[in-house]
Amino acid sequence: MRVQVGVWAAAAGAALLGGCHGVDPTPAPTPAPVSTSVGAPPAATTAAAPSPAPGPEPTTKVWVDLAVGDCLADPPPTDPSVVTVVVVDCARPHAAEVFLRATVPVNEAVADVADPRCADGYPAYTGHAVGAGGDTISYLIDSIQDRTGAVPEPSTVICLLAPADGHPVSGTARR
Question: What total number of domains does the chain contain?
């Protein structure tokens, strides 16, 4: 059985110290592009070719296959029926970035295991203490455990960071 848990912290500083908490799953609106024109156009104009977008085109990935360094176009899913996410080059605007994949025991309370694992992995990836980077931390749990079985198989916690203000960012948080 695969269990998906998506949790976003409500405030960057205090909430990160307490771990992952409830979140509003509504994505933040994307700011509209602004164009500015200064002065008169040149006498002879040529059509400028649009600058290429950074990195490869977005791809769709099953969220259990996310890797450290993957950047998500949208916040991680909180609906258990959603199994895919759109991964973009981190140079493109994105809503979240995977910073850790860690094996965790499935017979433990999710928050008691996932919160500390994500908090421990954050400084190693970003170079910032938890709460100092202006990010929120969330996680997805990939549980392959048959909870009715007697064999305690490990699960994977996939830790993600996102800007506390909910606005898309470009670039990676990796130090």
Answer: 1
